[in-house]
Amino acid sequence: xxxxxxxxxxxxxxxxxxxxxxxxxxxxxxxxxxxxxxxxxxxxxxxxxxxxxxxxxxxxxxxxxxxxxxxxxxxxxxxxxxxxxxxxxxxxxxxxxxxxxxxxxxxxx
Amino acid sequence: xxxxxxxxxxxxxxxxxxxxxxxxxxxxxxxxxxxxxxxxxxxxxxxxxxxxxxxxxxxxxxxxxxxxxxxxxxxxxxxxxxxxxxxxxxxxxxxxxxxxxxxxxxxxxxxxxxx
Lengths: 109, 115
What we know:
The structure holds 2 protein chains of 2 kinds. Chain A has strands spanning about 5, 10-15, 20-25, 30-35, 45-50, 50-55, 60-65, 70-75, 85-90, 95-100, 105-109.
């Protein structure tokens, strides 16, 4: 079993739909990252969370430390949101990130 | 915002040659840089952790003599793939930890193709 599991692996939705991507992890962490990778490969860091909830524009990230679970939400989705979204955790006391396998999101106009 | 650059963005080389990839933090000092490799449709795999002025720490299964890492300054780390083979073809990504923060900033990646 991977230390970081994401679901779904693939998600296709219509423009405007509310999107939820989930991440579960099995180790104690000091922080969780949500990353976005576009087809060209470049990675953008969306959020870093250690508790609670963060919001940036149409993106919302939440984390429940007790349940070892985080969600990334996209409101009013747009075709430009199409990308791979990756959850990564930093173990307690460490610097290294452990990555989930990613969720490929496709938003259809 | 913090920016990390990589050079080159893509490179094609012949089998047996060596390729150097640079990772620079453009507007901040990075005490620690990380090198990742990503094969198609797979997640990022950490290859090594690079600290300025000291030897890199390699992950299990990564050959330190094949993937040479030099962290020469607080803004530059280089990865040299020595005697490259077609199986080394991959997408190589670096990231940098901004000093005194917990945030990792990722470079745009370098696509290596070994013929």
